[in-house]
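Take a protein:
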Amino acid sequence: MKKITYIFVLALLTSVTSFAQSQEINWVTLEQALEFQKKNPKKIMMDVYTNWCGPCKMLDKNTFHNKDVVDFVNENYYAVKFDAEGDSTLSYDGKTFSNPTYKAELKNRRNGVHDLTRYLKVSAYPTIVFFDVDAKVISPIKGYQKPQQLELYLKLFLGDDYASMTTQEDFNAYYEAFKPEFQQ
C-alpha cells in the first residue's frame, strides 16, 4: 500500500511540476537570444522593466503567466527580461552597454538608467520591445498589456504584416479586424 501511495504522490508531483513549468515563459538574456537567432531565427520579445514598477509586476503576474501567452511566446519568440535600471553589461548592435550610474544601495528603488534602455528609446515602464530575426527593433509597446492586448502585438509582429502598415489607418484597420483568441 505504501508503495502505491508513494507512486501516486510522485506521479502527482511530476504532473504538478510539469504544469507549473508550462506556465512559465522561457526567459533568456539578450545575448543568449542573439546567439539562438543564429541557429534558429525567431523574433525577440524583450520585457523592459524595473524592480520598483507596479505595472511591471502586474504584467509579469497577470500577462506573462497567462497560459495562452506563455505557450505562444515560448513557441514563436525568444523572450528576454531586461532590468532597465540594472547593473549588467551587454553587447548589442556592435556596441557595449552598461549602467555607469547604478548604485547597489538603491537596488529595489529608482536607480540610474541603463545605457541600453536609452539606446532603445524606452521612456516608460513597462515597455515590451519587439525585435526582428536580424535583431533590429521593430517597435516598442509602452505600458501594461492584458493578455488579449499583448496577443494583438505578438501576432502582428510574428508575421511581417506590420511592415506593410504605413499609416495609423492601416493599424486601425488591423486592430478593428483582429479577433483575440487568448483567454483573459
In short: The chain has a mean pLDDT of 88. Residues 2-22 form the longest helix (21 residues). The CA atoms of residues 149 and 180 lie 8 Å apart. The helical segments are 2-22, 30-39, 54-63, 67-76, 115-119, 147-158, 168-177.
